[in-house]
Amino acid sequence: MKQRFGILIIGLLLIGCKSKTSTQNEIQEIQERQQEKVNHLKVFAKAYGYVKYFHPSDEASKIDWNSFAAYGANEILKSNNTNEVIATLNNLFKPIAPSVVFSNTKQDYDMSTITPNIVNDYKPTYWQHLGVSKDMNMQGEAYSSVRVNRYTEVDESNGFGNLSVSINAEKYKGKEIKYSGWIKLKEGSKGTGHLWMRIDKSDNTLGFFENMDANPIKSNEWKQYEIIGKIDDLASGIYFGSFIKGKGTMFLDDVRLHYKENNEWVEIPIKNNDFEAQTLGKRNEQSAWTGNSVGYSYTFSTTEIKEGKQSAVIAYEGKIKRVEGTALFDSHPKFGELIEREIGDGIFCQIPLNLYANNETTYPKSTSLNTLNKSISAMDDSGNNIFLYLGNVINTYNVFQHFYPYFNEVEVDWDKELTAALQRSFNDQTDYEHLVTLQKFTAPLKDGHIYVSGPNIKEYVPAINWEWIEGKLIITRVKDESLGIKVGDEVTKVNNQSSENYFKEVNSKISAGTKGWLNYRAQVASLSGEKDEKLVLEINGKNIVLNRDNKYDYGEIDIAIQENDYKLLDENIYYLNLSAIEMDTITALLPQLEKAKGIICDLRGYPNGNHAFISHLLREKDTSKAWMRIPKIIYPDQEKIVGFENSGWELQPKKPYLGNKKVVFIIDGSAISYAESYMSFIEGYHLATILGQPTAGTNGNINPFSLLGDFTISWTGMKVVKHDGSQLHGVGVLPDIYVSKSIEGVKSGKDEFLEKAIEVILE
């Protein structure tokens, strides 16, 4: 199963290179053969999505669709012509969709194959999607997928089983800390193992955090793993433990904690660090190991041990609940409706959208599902696998093809992008290369919520920040004075190529609706690499070599203009940092805000749950009730969408009313999602002067899904428009007054956005 088609192609390129002519002919032949294979995979991809999301058979609900994508890609690549592809499709899908037909001609569908002799004993079943929740990671949130009149098994487990402990941080403030433990997974486990450590701070902010998501444990042999971090001076508690993510069983033993003193590691005693005592503490009991994740058991093993007589065991058991599929809305496909498409050159499909079902099964019933499931289970899906990569691309294609709500707003040839992603997958040799393929595949969708994560993410950065200002790449922060770099320096080359070309590659992997969000994301992505990987900058004609030795702290580049959540400026002007201030603090400030000359609200970032402040700017109640729209889908390829579930916030005015004074909101490209919901009220109801740069142009609840090999993709699952119904996606909330950073402003440490906001208040 570890064979690689990409390697085969490279090998063929090296054969028969006896003359220039023969080499060119050979290359052309190989290219044609690879394109033929890609075309076959595209046929499978279309059939896969149609059956997965729209064919309501019981058997189709009992398949692991992630693994089936990889298995099907493997099988389809064995086909050498159209007839073989058709035969393979029928062999693949008959066990899970016995009424589906693939053929080489258009033909009438035999309705008797889906009609039982006595229909009175049956009910119709069909798929309804409100957005999509099938095989998504956030079940029970904004989105739903229902197979009407059939029971669905819903796993209500937490998704990870965690065993943890905590100690007081007082003695170790400001010191380096190391947490280690021995871990192995049971053979056959699908999940991944993790150590984790978190430093909580007395100001309720998060200090150091690591959970090995970038480098999860997959080995079924005992190995020692460790996490090293820094304990903040404001640290209040050290929390650490281990968890298994997903399904499987994990063994944990010989856990140790050390802090560094005089360049030596000194051990911190941990109660029951070898798990020799057969007890676990109560929930949140400090200094005692606690395990309480729903759907997981916590026991001890006397056979799988690293040290002593026993080890701790975390095992997935699941918490399965059977849920009856009740209709989400009135519209549904009628009995006899089919997906009839030419899904490839001379390859036709007929897929029923509505089936009869009784208490036992859907009609007709398959007899070969167990055989297929055994074949899929025997497949190697552990990662670094060409068929896994192809399956992930096929799976990803279908999520967006059938449910991405912004194809009308975004100019993208999605089928063309599928072709390119499949072609790249043939050459992917590592998980990181596959990560890049998925990033480049989804980047043209221009969805700022798209994040592709996976194993071995490169997350270390050098001790600088930079940003494009006045068309030049400018250093905006230096965290190590010994580097010989100053704020305001221009970087003309990166790794011996122009800064523009370097960022061109970085930007090709980022999905962004607006230039502002693209630049914001690129600030970190352009600096990120492997630990201690070098980055060579040309500044003032000289090369400076930087070391990527700092693990990126999420949110580090987010702007916090003031150290405080709010500040009283000159002339009785109040500044509110909406990315930091809590609503309770704003409420306490209302008497002062009511007397203020003006209010500056900084939303260069993400609101801290304080959108109730909008009510104090409203003179009349909010009547905009349809700016969030979840599509109602019953047909594939987003054809004939039957409507939307509309909603809004329906805010009410509150006293004191603050809209009678000068209010300025500062925005830029880092304001996304919730921030744009916030700003859409300000823009839509003309509640303040808006100043800065356009927001990110991406709003709506995210809807992440997981792929084989521990890859995950988040994306936007609903359509959000402005309050007047106009387009928000890819546009953003636009400022009334545009302000840009200047190089001189950066050098002098000015906040030119805030300065302009004060000027507007004083006009």
TrEMBL record:
SMART domains: TSPc (SM00245)
Gene3D superfamilies: 2-enoyl-CoA Hydratase, Chain A, domain 1 (3.90.226.10), 3.30.750.44, Galactose-binding domain-like (2.60.120.260)
Matching InterPro entries: ClpP/crotonase-like_dom_sf, Tail-specific_protease
Residues of the Tail specific protease domain: 534-740
GO molecular function per UniProt: endopeptidase activity; serine-type peptidase activity
Source organism, top-level taxon: Bacteria
Any one GO biological process: proteolysis
This protein's name: Peptidase family S41
